[in-house]
Amino acid sequence: MLQRLATTRMLHACALVMTLASTSLAHAETHFVRAGSDWTSLASRVRAGDEILLGEGVHRSVVLERMIGDAQHPITIRPQAAQGLVEIAPDREAIKLVDCAYVRIERIAVHKARRAGIVVEGTTAHSSHHISILDVLVTQSQGLAEEAGIVAREVDGLTVQRVRVENCAGAGVHLEHCARAELEALQIFVRGENTARFGFNLVGTQESITISKSLLRGRIESAISIGCKASLRAGAVIAPFAAPSSATKTKPDSTSTRVAAPTLTTLAHAIICADIRIEGATRALDVGSCDEATFRAVTIVDAHEEAYRISVPPPGCAPARVRFCDNLIVWKPDAMRRLGVVADGADAQGFTLGANLWWSTRFPATGEVLGTNAPRFPGKITVPQTIDIDPNLDERLLPRTPSAMLFGANV
After folding, report:
1. What is the mean pLDDT of the chain?
2. What is the CATH number of domain 49-230+266-404?
3. Which residues contact 267 (CB under 8 A, 6 or more apart)?
């Protein structure tokens, strides 16, 4: 009897949950957009759970402001067709979201936008949040500002997955003042004589950013740049400059000998870069001001200058605190000038090297890559670096040698 009563109660509870769910979705609508039509006004009409379906053809670029879904019922922008991409005509950007929340963008193609393929911005700190960008192709962004594939500024909660960026002059992904971002399974390619400044460029304050399972290939100056540049927050007011007045100067206290140490700010916190393959970049990693940053299980092939660079942090910012471990660095003879470099005035003590595998057929010799005065591996070495195992990389840059499989990307 008790068992039957419990079963009845459970069935009633399930029915109540299903009723509430169906009620909450009862208002969800589908908004169809014909190619070439203006769809800016949809921003004021869509509600949580709604879908914006883009018909066949080339669509106009759009700026969508204050579209708000919720965690269970995001607003989705996608092609009407079940498969393939739909193209957005180039402009400054193809799709720009401003102060939006719980929005998904799926299966979009953008060619030759001037600023970026997709831009997500907040007008105040993290006023855009929980944005997903999935299965997107962006090619040849150049001409304005970031010149990137994806730009996110003041976004809290960002997911970017299965995105391909080709020949964008600035960055594959440009993040500025973002938190809790997951960038997974991206391909950033620079082909032929084209060049790009960055693969992933993390500017200003960053919190809890993960970059994983990605491939970067071609002439990229810095594949991953973290904390090398400060930036004003959205809505920040610049105080007018006031020249010091001699009438208001105060004399220093001659009885005091203590000088307060300046307070330093760390730009990027809790950054993880893992399972990434980088081929042909000028350098794989450039770090300025960051802490709890990890560069792990990364394969670096034929970097032109160095595998990593420790840069001078922006004024008022603390130096880099990075864990560099379980990485695989391979280069052909004469293909890399240095293993790592410390910029003049930078602090390398916070750059810690764990176990890494470095391989070139000329590495055992004291060639020009090692230098004569500089240390082989700038930073703090916690375990000896491995230099005598040929990883025998396959066409996907994965090692065939069993003992080398402990290093570098596994996907």
Report:
1. 88
2. 2.160.20.10
3. 204, 205, 206, 227, 230, 288, 289, 290, 313, 314, 317
